[in-house]
Structure formats: structure tokens, C-alpha cells
Amino acid sequence: MSIITPGIGLIFWTTLFFLIVVFILGKKVFPEIAKALREREDSIDKALNEAETARKDVAGLKADIDKMKQEARAERQEIIKEAEGQAKKIVVDAQEAAKSEGDRIIKEARESIEAEKRAAMAEVKDQVATLSLEIAEKVIRQKLEADEAQKQLVKELLAK
């Protein structure tokens, strides 16, 4: 037997040991490797499913966030419109109050002016009456004999 060509016994024993090793590996090691590969495959599938679920959840959350943003924008616009409406109402109310206050002040001023006018007219009438009485008194006191003298006295008194 040479080193390059193996003998039949060597082939037989090598094959026998190979088959025994393959049998032992097949009974003990390969099931464990297959089990580990199945577990690894299951964990990868589970991770992929969880990633897909997470992706869907993220997409749903993103849609919810977008919806909330739109609702917030709409609510903000509504609040702004309400504030503008209230501001306009306050301005209109203030204008109406100012106008009514101005009208009231003008009315009071007119009434005051009218009252002062009536008082002045009454005072003028009193003064005219007093002056007339004084003129009459002076005319009677002087007991003038001539008509012409009485007319002259009245003119002088009127001039005063």
C-alpha cells in the first residue's frame, strides 16, 4: 500500500467512523442546530411583524398628529374669529355708549342753556318792569303841568 492509494480497510474504517459521526451528529447536534435555526427564524419573523406593526402604529400616530394639528389650526382660527368679533362688538358698544353719553351731555347743555335763557328773560322782564315803575314814579313825582314836558321827561328817562 502506498501513501497515495488508500487500502480497502482504511476506506472501510473511515467510512464506518464517518457514518457513526454523521449518525451521532444527526441524533444530537443537527436537531439542536435545526431548533436554533427555527428559533432564529421565528424571532426574525416576530421582529419583522413587530416592526410592521410599529410602522403601522407610527403611520397611525402620524395621521392622528396631522389630524390634531388641523383641529388645532381650526380651533385657533375659530378663537381668532371670536376674538375679532368680540373686539368689534366692544368697539361698537363703546361707540354707542360714547354717542349716547355725548347726546345726553348735549341734551343737558341745551336744557341748561334754555333754563338760563328763560332766567335771563325773566330777569330782563323784571328789570323792564322795575324801570317802568321807576319812570312812572318819577313822572308822578314831578307832576308836570305840560304835556310837552312829560314827553320830554319820558324820552330822557328812556335814553338813560
Give an account of the 3D structure.
It is a single chain. With 160 residues, the chain is mainly alpha-helical. Helix content is 92%, strand content 0%. The chain has helices at 8-142, 147-159. The radius of gyration is 63 Å and the shape is rod-shaped. The model has no long low-confidence stretch (mean pLDDT 88).
| Number of helical segments with 4 or more residues | 2
- The N- to C-terminal Cα distance equals 179 Å
Largest sheet: none
Strand content: under 5%
Spans with pLDDT under 50 lasting ≥5 residues?
Answer: none
**What helical percentage do the residues reach?**
over 70%
Q: How many whole angstroms does the radius of gyration measure?
A: 63 Å
**How many structural domains does the protein architecture include?**
1
Mean pLDDT: 88
Overall SS class:
mainly alpha
The tally of beta strands, per DSSP, is: 0
| Gross geometry | rod-shaped
Q: List the helices and strands in order.
A: HH
**Quaternary structure type:** single chain
